[in-house]
């Protein structure tokens, strides 16, 4: 039992470190605003969720964003609005994927889970951006205030399609890894059960 706890902690720490490094290797996509950047840091969190359970995936997302906040600072005034947004997007991506895949443990269920995770992340992040994240940027970071119509336009033309593109690209990369690692991941998940 003690060995399993140590392996869990080491696994979460290792995957969190990899996620943090991948988070630092972010880049913007030309058609979208430059503050929207793609990174592949959700892949280690998804691996953690599949192997060690959803709590491990959430923990990897949390540690990754905490490290990012500590190492790079906040967006301003000590408020980690961007890190909160990244944390929520990661959770909204990995949890539906984990629960769908965990039912059947097939490549089809993983693909369906990733598609559902992408859709969940894109839609829910649009809602969170409208009600929480964009108002937080305006309030805490003294960003220019936008009217309701401007916020809706930004969400519909930038944030929603960006999250779909990000989820789709992450899905393609993860499926390339998953096709090679599925048997190993399933064995590790069985050992951690």
UniProtKB/TrEMBL annotation:
One GO MF term attached to the UniProt entry: riboflavin transmembrane transporter activity
Source organism superkingdom: Bacteria
Species the sequence originates in: Falsibacillus albus
Ranges in coiled-coil conformation: none
UniProt cross-references to InterPro entries, sorted A to Z: ECF_trnsprt_substrate-spec (IPR024529), RibU (IPR025720)
Transmembrane segments: 6-25, 45-64, 113-133, 153-178
Topology term for the membrane: Multi-pass membrane protein
Function: Probably a riboflavin-binding protein that interacts with the energy-coupling factor (ECF) ABC-transporter complex.
Subcellular locations according to the entry: Cell membrane
Organism lineage string: Bacteria, Bacillati, Bacillota, Bacilli, Bacillales
Pfam families named in the record: ECF_trnsprt
Family listed: Belongs to the prokaryotic riboflavin transporter (P-RFT) (TC 2.A.87) family.
Sorted UniProt keywords: Cell membrane, Membrane, Transmembrane, Transmembrane helix, Transport
Gene Ontology cellular component terms for the protein in this record: plasma membrane
Protein name as annotated: Riboflavin transporter
